[in-house]
Amino acid sequence: MMKTLSLVFTFLLLSCNGQESKIQLQNNKEMNSLKIAPYNITDEGDGTKSNYDDLSLEFINKAKKILEQRKFQFLDENTFNQKILDVFSFNVKEYKNSIIALRPAMFPEVAIRDNKFIFIQDAGANEPEFINPDLLYHFNSYVFYNTPVSYVWLQTNNSNLLYDLVVYYGYNKDKKLVESIFKKFDFNSLSDMEELIFMNSGSHKVLKRQIFDDIETIIYKGKAEDFSYAKEGNGYLRIGEIINKVSSSPKEYSDPEKTISYLFERELRVGIQGDAESYINKNPKYKSDLEKNNFYELPTLKDYVKYIYQKENNSIFIIQDSDGYTNLRKDKNSSSQILQKINTGEQIDVLDQSGDWWLVVSKEGKKGYVHKSRIKSE
Protein backbone atom coordinates (compact mmCIF):
# COMPACT_ATOMS: atom_id res chain seq x y z
CA MET A 1 0.00 0.00 0.00
CA MET A 2 2.82 2.40 0.95
CA LYS A 3 4.60 1.57 -2.30
CA THR A 4 1.47 2.36 -4.31
CA LEU A 5 1.05 5.73 -2.55
CA SER A 6 4.70 6.49 -3.17
CA LEU A 7 4.28 5.77 -6.88
CA VAL A 8 1.16 7.95 -7.05
CA PHE A 9 2.95 10.77 -5.23
CA THR A 10 5.94 10.49 -7.58
CA PHE A 11 3.62 10.54 -10.59
CA LEU A 12 1.80 13.62 -9.31
CA LEU A 13 5.09 15.36 -8.54
CA LEU A 14 6.42 14.65 -12.03
CA SER A 15 3.12 15.80 -13.53
CA CYS A 16 3.17 19.04 -11.53
CA ASN A 17 6.82 19.65 -12.37
CA GLY A 18 6.06 18.99 -16.00
CA GLN A 19 3.12 21.36 -15.92
CA GLU A 20 5.23 24.04 -14.21
CA SER A 21 7.91 23.57 -16.85
CA LYS A 22 5.34 24.03 -19.61
CA ILE A 23 3.99 27.17 -17.95
CA GLN A 24 7.52 28.52 -17.47
CA LEU A 25 8.35 27.72 -21.09
CA GLN A 26 5.18 29.48 -22.24
CA ASN A 27 6.00 32.51 -20.06
CA ASN A 28 9.52 32.65 -21.48
CA LYS A 29 8.15 32.40 -25.00
CA GLU A 30 5.68 35.24 -24.36
CA MET A 31 8.41 37.36 -22.77
CA ASN A 32 10.73 36.81 -25.74
CA SER A 33 7.99 37.85 -28.13
CA LEU A 34 7.65 41.24 -26.42
CA LYS A 35 9.42 44.30 -27.79
CA ILE A 36 12.28 46.33 -26.36
CA ALA A 37 11.25 49.75 -25.02
CA PRO A 38 12.06 52.21 -27.84
CA TYR A 39 13.20 55.25 -25.82
CA ASN A 40 15.22 53.73 -22.98
CA ILE A 41 18.57 54.48 -24.58
CA THR A 42 19.13 58.21 -25.16
CA ASP A 43 22.04 60.10 -26.68
CA GLU A 44 23.36 62.74 -24.29
CA GLY A 45 24.86 64.68 -27.21
CA ASP A 46 28.53 64.38 -26.22
CA GLY A 47 29.05 60.84 -27.46
CA THR A 48 27.74 59.24 -24.28
CA LYS A 49 24.43 57.43 -23.94
CA SER A 50 22.17 56.79 -20.98
CA ASN A 51 20.11 53.65 -20.56
CA TYR A 52 17.01 53.79 -18.37
CA ASP A 53 17.13 50.02 -17.93
CA ASP A 54 20.05 50.81 -15.61
CA LEU A 55 18.21 53.50 -13.65
CA SER A 56 19.59 53.42 -10.11
CA LEU A 57 17.57 51.30 -7.71
CA GLU A 58 18.55 53.85 -5.04
CA PHE A 59 16.81 56.61 -7.04
CA ILE A 60 13.71 54.47 -7.55
CA ASN A 61 13.49 53.50 -3.87
CA LYS A 62 13.99 57.12 -2.80
CA ALA A 63 11.20 58.26 -5.13
CA LYS A 64 8.91 55.49 -3.90
CA LYS A 65 9.61 56.46 -0.27
CA ILE A 66 8.72 60.11 -1.04
CA LEU A 67 5.38 59.00 -2.46
CA GLU A 68 4.72 56.67 0.49
CA GLN A 69 5.43 59.45 2.98
CA ARG A 70 2.84 61.61 1.20
CA LYS A 71 0.25 58.81 1.39
CA PHE A 72 0.18 58.25 -2.37
CA GLN A 73 -2.06 55.28 -3.23
CA PHE A 74 -0.25 52.97 -5.66
CA LEU A 75 -2.49 51.32 -8.26
CA ASP A 76 -2.85 47.66 -9.13
CA GLU A 77 -1.06 46.49 -12.27
CA ASN A 78 -4.03 46.52 -14.66
CA THR A 79 -5.22 49.97 -13.61
CA PHE A 80 -1.67 51.33 -13.78
CA ASN A 81 -1.18 49.97 -17.31
CA GLN A 82 -4.52 51.38 -18.46
CA LYS A 83 -3.74 54.81 -17.02
CA ILE A 84 -0.40 54.91 -18.83
CA LEU A 85 -2.21 54.04 -22.05
CA ASP A 86 -4.93 56.66 -21.47
CA VAL A 87 -2.60 59.51 -20.58
CA PHE A 88 0.58 58.79 -22.54
CA SER A 89 -0.83 56.69 -25.42
CA PHE A 90 1.80 54.10 -24.53
CA ASN A 91 0.93 50.43 -24.06
CA VAL A 92 3.55 49.19 -21.61
CA LYS A 93 2.23 45.61 -21.91
CA GLU A 94 3.84 45.37 -25.35
CA TYR A 95 7.34 45.65 -23.87
CA LYS A 96 9.52 43.36 -21.80
CA ASN A 97 11.36 46.11 -19.86
CA SER A 98 10.42 46.69 -16.22
CA ILE A 99 11.48 50.36 -16.52
CA ILE A 100 10.20 52.24 -19.58
CA ALA A 101 11.01 55.78 -20.74
CA LEU A 102 7.82 57.07 -22.35
CA ARG A 103 9.46 59.41 -24.87
CA PRO A 104 12.89 60.46 -26.16
CA ALA A 105 14.03 63.39 -23.99
CA MET A 106 16.79 64.49 -21.62
CA PHE A 107 14.48 63.93 -18.62
CA PRO A 108 11.58 61.80 -19.89
CA GLU A 109 8.64 60.50 -17.91
CA VAL A 110 9.60 56.96 -16.86
CA ALA A 111 7.14 54.19 -15.98
CA ILE A 112 8.36 52.08 -13.05
CA ARG A 113 6.27 48.97 -13.61
CA ASP A 114 7.23 47.02 -10.49
CA ASN A 115 6.31 49.90 -8.15
CA LYS A 116 3.45 51.40 -10.25
CA PHE A 117 4.46 55.05 -10.45
CA ILE A 118 6.03 57.56 -12.87
CA PHE A 119 9.60 58.55 -12.10
CA ILE A 120 10.19 62.13 -13.18
CA GLN A 121 13.30 64.27 -12.73
CA ASP A 122 13.78 68.01 -12.47
CA ALA A 123 17.00 69.58 -13.77
CA GLY A 124 16.45 72.51 -11.39
CA ALA A 125 16.19 70.39 -8.26
CA ASN A 126 18.79 70.70 -5.48
CA GLU A 127 19.11 66.95 -5.07
CA PRO A 128 22.04 65.41 -7.02
CA GLU A 129 19.71 62.92 -8.70
CA PHE A 130 17.33 65.78 -9.70
CA ILE A 131 14.43 64.47 -7.65
CA ASN A 132 11.95 67.20 -6.77
CA PRO A 133 9.60 65.71 -4.13
CA ASP A 134 6.76 68.14 -4.87
CA LEU A 135 6.97 67.56 -8.61
CA LEU A 136 7.17 63.79 -8.19
CA TYR A 137 4.09 63.68 -5.95
CA HIS A 138 1.91 66.16 -7.81
CA PHE A 139 2.67 64.72 -11.23
CA ASN A 140 1.74 61.20 -10.13
CA SER A 141 -1.27 62.47 -8.23
CA TYR A 142 -2.60 64.33 -11.28
CA VAL A 143 -1.79 61.62 -13.85
CA PHE A 144 -3.34 58.76 -11.89
CA TYR A 145 -6.07 60.52 -9.88
CA ASN A 146 -6.66 63.87 -11.63
CA THR A 147 -6.29 65.57 -8.23
CA PRO A 148 -7.37 69.26 -8.44
CA VAL A 149 -4.72 70.49 -5.98
CA SER A 150 -1.99 68.78 -8.00
CA TYR A 151 -3.36 70.25 -11.23
CA VAL A 152 -3.11 73.76 -9.74
CA TRP A 153 0.42 73.07 -8.45
CA LEU A 154 1.58 71.89 -11.88
CA GLN A 155 -0.05 74.86 -13.63
CA THR A 156 1.86 77.18 -11.30
CA ASN A 157 5.22 75.43 -11.12
CA ASN A 158 5.63 73.11 -14.15
CA SER A 159 3.03 74.06 -16.73
CA ASN A 160 5.28 72.74 -19.52
CA LEU A 161 4.58 69.18 -18.32
CA LEU A 162 0.82 69.74 -18.65
CA TYR A 163 1.40 71.28 -22.08
CA ASP A 164 3.31 68.16 -23.16
CA LEU A 165 0.56 65.85 -21.91
CA VAL A 166 -1.85 67.46 -24.38
CA VAL A 167 0.42 68.49 -27.27
CA TYR A 168 3.01 65.72 -27.28
CA TYR A 169 1.08 62.75 -25.88
CA GLY A 170 -2.41 63.72 -27.09
CA TYR A 171 -4.05 63.41 -23.66
CA ASN A 172 -7.49 65.03 -23.84
CA LYS A 173 -9.70 63.46 -21.17
CA ASP A 174 -9.32 66.51 -18.91
CA LYS A 175 -11.19 69.14 -20.95
CA LYS A 176 -10.28 71.90 -18.50
CA LEU A 177 -6.61 71.19 -19.21
CA VAL A 178 -7.11 71.05 -22.99
CA GLU A 179 -8.95 74.37 -22.99
CA SER A 180 -6.20 76.05 -20.97
CA ILE A 181 -3.53 74.73 -23.35
CA PHE A 182 -5.46 75.85 -26.44
CA LYS A 183 -5.70 79.39 -25.06
CA LYS A 184 -1.93 79.80 -25.37
CA PHE A 185 -1.26 77.35 -28.20
CA ASP A 186 0.12 78.83 -31.45
CA PHE A 187 -2.13 77.33 -34.12
CA ASN A 188 -0.27 79.42 -36.70
CA SER A 189 2.97 77.51 -36.07
CA LEU A 190 3.36 74.68 -38.58
CA SER A 191 5.77 72.70 -36.38
CA ASP A 192 3.59 73.10 -33.27
CA MET A 193 0.49 72.09 -35.20
CA GLU A 194 2.22 68.98 -36.55
CA GLU A 195 3.26 68.01 -33.03
CA LEU A 196 -0.31 68.51 -31.81
CA ILE A 197 -2.03 66.32 -34.41
CA PHE A 198 0.62 63.65 -35.14
CA MET A 199 2.17 60.98 -32.94
CA ASN A 200 5.53 59.52 -33.98
CA SER A 201 5.30 55.74 -33.87
CA GLY A 202 8.59 54.39 -35.10
CA SER A 203 8.95 55.08 -38.81
CA HIS A 204 5.55 56.71 -39.38
CA LYS A 205 3.53 59.65 -38.16
CA VAL A 206 0.04 58.71 -36.99
CA LEU A 207 -2.88 61.11 -36.52
CA LYS A 208 -4.03 61.75 -32.95
CA ARG A 209 -7.66 61.71 -34.00
CA GLN A 210 -9.00 62.36 -30.52
CA ILE A 211 -7.63 65.91 -30.49
CA PHE A 212 -9.72 67.06 -33.47
CA ASP A 213 -12.99 66.91 -31.54
CA ASP A 214 -11.48 69.33 -29.03
CA ILE A 215 -10.32 71.73 -31.75
CA GLU A 216 -13.80 71.68 -33.25
CA THR A 217 -15.57 72.15 -29.91
CA ILE A 218 -13.23 74.62 -28.21
CA ILE A 219 -11.91 76.67 -31.14
CA TYR A 220 -14.81 76.53 -33.61
CA LYS A 221 -17.64 76.14 -31.07
CA GLY A 222 -19.05 73.11 -32.86
CA LYS A 223 -19.75 71.79 -36.33
CA ALA A 224 -21.14 74.01 -39.11
CA GLU A 225 -24.76 73.33 -40.05
CA ASP A 226 -23.98 73.10 -43.77
CA PHE A 227 -21.49 74.24 -46.40
CA SER A 228 -22.93 77.74 -46.78
CA TYR A 229 -20.41 79.36 -44.42
CA ALA A 230 -17.24 78.60 -42.48
CA LYS A 231 -17.08 78.80 -38.70
CA GLU A 232 -14.79 81.43 -37.17
CA GLY A 233 -11.59 80.08 -35.66
CA ASN A 234 -7.85 79.61 -36.16
CA GLY A 235 -7.50 75.92 -35.35
CA TYR A 236 -6.93 74.75 -38.92
CA LEU A 237 -4.78 77.61 -40.25
CA ARG A 238 -1.94 75.29 -41.33
CA ILE A 239 -3.88 72.16 -42.30
CA GLY A 240 -3.53 72.94 -46.02
CA GLU A 241 0.27 72.96 -45.72
CA ILE A 242 0.22 69.77 -43.67
CA ILE A 243 -1.91 68.09 -46.36
CA ASN A 244 0.66 69.13 -48.97
CA LYS A 245 3.45 67.64 -46.84
CA VAL A 246 1.61 64.34 -46.49
CA SER A 247 0.96 64.30 -50.24
CA SER A 248 4.59 65.03 -51.15
CA SER A 249 6.14 62.65 -48.57
CA PRO A 250 3.58 59.84 -48.15
CA LYS A 251 6.11 57.31 -46.81
CA GLU A 252 6.56 59.38 -43.66
CA TYR A 253 2.90 58.92 -42.70
CA SER A 254 0.68 56.02 -41.78
CA ASP A 255 -2.14 55.55 -44.35
CA PRO A 256 -1.33 58.82 -46.17
CA GLU A 257 -4.43 58.94 -48.40
CA LYS A 258 -6.70 58.17 -45.48
CA THR A 259 -4.86 60.79 -43.42
CA ILE A 260 -5.41 63.44 -46.10
CA SER A 261 -9.09 62.54 -46.39
CA TYR A 262 -9.54 62.72 -42.61
CA LEU A 263 -7.99 66.19 -42.54
CA PHE A 264 -10.41 67.31 -45.26
CA GLU A 265 -13.27 65.82 -43.25
CA ARG A 266 -12.35 67.86 -40.19
CA GLU A 267 -11.97 71.08 -42.17
CA LEU A 268 -15.26 70.54 -43.99
CA ARG A 269 -17.07 69.89 -40.70
CA VAL A 270 -16.45 73.55 -39.80
CA GLY A 271 -17.18 74.77 -43.34
CA ILE A 272 -13.62 75.16 -44.68
CA GLN A 273 -13.76 74.06 -48.34
CA GLY A 274 -10.77 75.70 -50.03
CA ASP A 275 -8.18 73.01 -49.33
CA ALA A 276 -10.43 70.16 -50.46
CA GLU A 277 -11.47 72.00 -53.62
CA SER A 278 -7.88 72.90 -54.52
CA TYR A 279 -6.64 69.35 -53.92
CA ILE A 280 -9.36 67.75 -56.07
CA ASN A 281 -8.69 70.28 -58.84
CA LYS A 282 -4.98 69.39 -58.85
CA ASN A 283 -5.55 65.63 -58.43
CA PRO A 284 -8.44 64.57 -60.73
CA LYS A 285 -7.94 60.90 -59.82
CA TYR A 286 -8.54 61.63 -56.15
CA LYS A 287 -12.31 61.87 -56.54
CA SER A 288 -12.59 58.40 -58.11
CA ASP A 289 -10.20 57.00 -55.46
CA LEU A 290 -12.51 58.32 -52.76
CA GLU A 291 -15.49 56.67 -54.40
CA LYS A 292 -13.64 53.34 -54.63
CA ASN A 293 -12.83 53.53 -50.91
CA ASN A 294 -16.38 54.61 -50.01
CA PHE A 295 -14.94 57.95 -48.88
CA TYR A 296 -13.22 56.13 -45.97
CA GLU A 297 -16.57 56.29 -44.12
CA LEU A 298 -16.18 60.08 -43.80
CA PRO A 299 -19.73 61.48 -44.23
CA THR A 300 -18.95 65.20 -44.54
CA LEU A 301 -16.29 64.62 -47.19
CA LYS A 302 -18.70 62.37 -49.08
CA ASP A 303 -21.46 64.99 -49.04
CA TYR A 304 -19.06 67.70 -50.15
CA VAL A 305 -17.71 65.75 -53.13
CA LYS A 306 -21.11 64.44 -54.23
CA TYR A 307 -23.20 67.56 -53.78
CA ILE A 308 -20.98 70.64 -53.55
CA TYR A 309 -17.82 70.08 -55.55
CA GLN A 310 -18.78 70.52 -59.21
CA LYS A 311 -15.63 71.01 -61.20
CA GLU A 312 -16.75 68.44 -63.78
CA ASN A 313 -20.14 70.10 -64.18
CA ASN A 314 -20.03 73.87 -63.71
CA SER A 315 -23.78 74.18 -64.08
CA ILE A 316 -25.72 77.40 -63.70
CA PHE A 317 -28.92 76.84 -61.75
CA ILE A 318 -32.05 78.88 -62.39
CA ILE A 319 -35.63 78.76 -61.15
CA GLN A 320 -38.12 77.23 -63.64
CA ASP A 321 -41.76 77.40 -62.46
CA SER A 322 -44.93 77.77 -64.58
CA ASP A 323 -46.42 80.05 -61.91
CA GLY A 324 -43.71 82.60 -62.65
CA TYR A 325 -42.05 82.15 -59.26
CA THR A 326 -41.32 79.55 -56.59
CA ASN A 327 -41.15 79.72 -52.83
CA LEU A 328 -37.91 79.63 -50.84
CA ARG A 329 -38.83 77.75 -47.68
CA LYS A 330 -37.24 77.48 -44.27
CA ASP A 331 -37.45 73.67 -44.08
CA LYS A 332 -37.72 70.72 -46.47
CA ASN A 333 -41.51 70.64 -46.92
CA SER A 334 -44.28 72.52 -48.72
CA SER A 335 -45.92 73.71 -45.52
CA SER A 336 -42.77 75.29 -44.13
CA GLN A 337 -42.40 79.03 -43.63
CA ILE A 338 -41.87 81.00 -46.87
CA LEU A 339 -38.71 83.09 -46.67
CA GLN A 340 -38.89 84.64 -50.13
CA LYS A 341 -40.45 84.30 -53.60
CA ILE A 342 -37.87 83.68 -56.35
CA ASN A 343 -38.91 84.58 -59.91
CA THR A 344 -38.66 82.16 -62.82
CA GLY A 345 -35.38 82.63 -64.71
CA GLU A 346 -33.58 83.95 -61.65
CA GLN A 347 -30.17 82.37 -60.93
CA ILE A 348 -29.50 80.70 -57.58
CA ASP A 349 -26.56 79.02 -55.91
CA VAL A 350 -27.13 75.38 -54.95
CA LEU A 351 -25.40 74.33 -51.73
CA ASP A 352 -26.79 70.84 -51.27
CA GLN A 353 -28.50 68.59 -53.84
CA SER A 354 -29.32 65.69 -51.53
CA GLY A 355 -32.98 64.62 -51.40
CA ASP A 356 -36.01 66.21 -53.08
CA TRP A 357 -35.50 69.60 -51.43
CA TRP A 358 -32.28 71.40 -52.35
CA LEU A 359 -30.52 73.90 -50.13
CA VAL A 360 -30.04 77.11 -52.14
CA VAL A 361 -29.10 80.77 -51.79
CA SER A 362 -31.02 83.49 -53.64
CA LYS A 363 -29.37 86.50 -55.29
CA GLU A 364 -30.46 88.52 -52.24
CA GLY A 365 -28.40 86.15 -50.06
CA LYS A 366 -31.28 84.35 -48.36
CA LYS A 367 -30.71 80.65 -47.70
CA GLY A 368 -33.47 78.07 -47.74
CA TYR A 369 -35.00 75.08 -49.53
CA VAL A 370 -36.57 74.75 -53.00
CA HIS A 371 -38.07 71.57 -54.44
CA LYS A 372 -35.70 70.17 -57.07
CA SER A 373 -38.53 70.06 -59.64
CA ARG A 374 -38.47 73.87 -59.68
CA ILE A 375 -34.74 74.07 -60.46
CA LYS A 376 -33.20 73.84 -63.93
CA SER A 377 -29.49 73.55 -64.76
CA GLU A 378 -27.87 75.14 -67.80
Automatic annotation (TrEMBL):
PROSITE patterns: PROKAR_LIPOPROTEIN, SH3B
Stored Gene3D superfamilies: SH3 Domains (2.30.30.40)
InterPro entries linked: SH3-like_bac-type
Entries under Pfam families matching the protein: SH3_3
Domain SH3b, chain residue ranges per copy: 312-378
Superkingdom of the source species: Bacteria
Protein name: SH3 domain-containing protein
The species this protein was found in: Chryseobacterium joostei
